[in-house]
Amino acid sequence: MDRKLPSIILRETVATPDIERIGALVAGTGFFSDEEVGIARELVEERLAKGIACGYHFLLAETGRALLGYTCYGPTDDAPWLFDLYWIAVLDSCRGKGIGSALLTATERRVTRMGGTRIHIETSSRPQYLPTRCFYEKHGYRRGAVHKNFYAPGEDRYVYIKDLAPAQPQKAA
Ligand SMILES: CC(C)(COP(=O)(O)OP(=O)(O)OC[C@H]1O[C@@H](n2cnc3c(N)ncnc32)[C@H](O)[C@@H]1OP(=O)(O)O)[C@@H](O)C(=O)NCCC(=O)NCCS
């Protein structure tokens, strides 16, 4: 497999065609139920309807016109410094090339700039998610709470946590 990171452009805005594109990307991973795919689409719709005030931020990785991956994240209602990474997904055929890492690192930078100092990610204990869990751990996320049988009997919810260094104040010129 060619592991070279393709040259990607990161985009923070979303537009109406992104509802379909993100829906197709998420559905194509084979990781998510129809209901979860619907939620991924709804978050884009909500952002388009309500703007940034809805609290859903996006980062899309593209090459040319193709969407290769994306994240959706935002501050939680619990605390403004605590952010959730709601979604991260990379196109099946493009995994293992560093796109997920580039997206996660760029998302963390944006969270820090917005005053966030901690990110939570929820994921499943299913064996299918083992590479995903390795990915989070490689990026410094530690497993926090485990909610037994949360998704289904025998399928736990893991909450991964990463503390981020606070943004450095800008030096006066
Ligand atoms: C998780 C995901 C976003 C990672 O994106 P990616 O572009 O494949 O990740 P990268 O190429 O940046 O991988 C970085 C590291 O993750 C780990 N990793 C990635 N794929 C792995 C695999 N199949 N097995 C083990 N580790 C893996 C490795 O540590 C890798 O580091 P290395 O390249 O030095 O070996 C992507 O695989 C994906 O979309 N998965 C399906 C959807 C999903 O699980 N989303 C999260 C829901 S909670």
Describe the overall structure.
- The chain is an alpha+beta fold and 173 residues long.
- Helices cover 31% and strands 32% of the residues.
- It is built from 4 helices and 7 strands.
- The protein has a 7-stranded mixed sheet with strand order 1-2-3-4-5-7-6, sandwiched between helices.
- A hairpin with a 6-residue loop joins strand 3 and strand 4.
- Helix 1 runs antiparallel to helix 2.
- It starts with 8 loop residues before the first strand and ends in a 10-residue tail after the last strand.
- Bound molecules: coenzyme A.
- The site of coenzyme A has 19 residues, from strand 4, helix 3 and helix 4.
Short description:
It is built from 4 helices and 7 strands, in the order E-H-H-E-E-E-H-E-H-E-E.
Topology:
Blueprint: E1 9-11, H1 17-28, H2 34-50, E2 57-63, E3 66-75, E4 82-90, H3 99-113, E5 118-124, H4 130-138, E6 142-152, E7 155-163
Parallel strand pairs: 4-5
Antiparallel strand pairs: 1-2, 2-3, 3-4, 5-7, 6-7
Bound molecules: coenzyme A.
| N/C terminus separation | 47 Å
| Class from secondary-structure proportions | alpha+beta
The main sheet comes to: 7 strands, mixed
| CATH architecture heading | 3-Layer(aba) Sandwich
CATH topology: Aminopeptidase
Order of helices and strands: EHHEEEHEHEE
- Give the domain tally: 1
Q: What percentage of residues falls in helices of 4 or more residues?
A: 25-40%
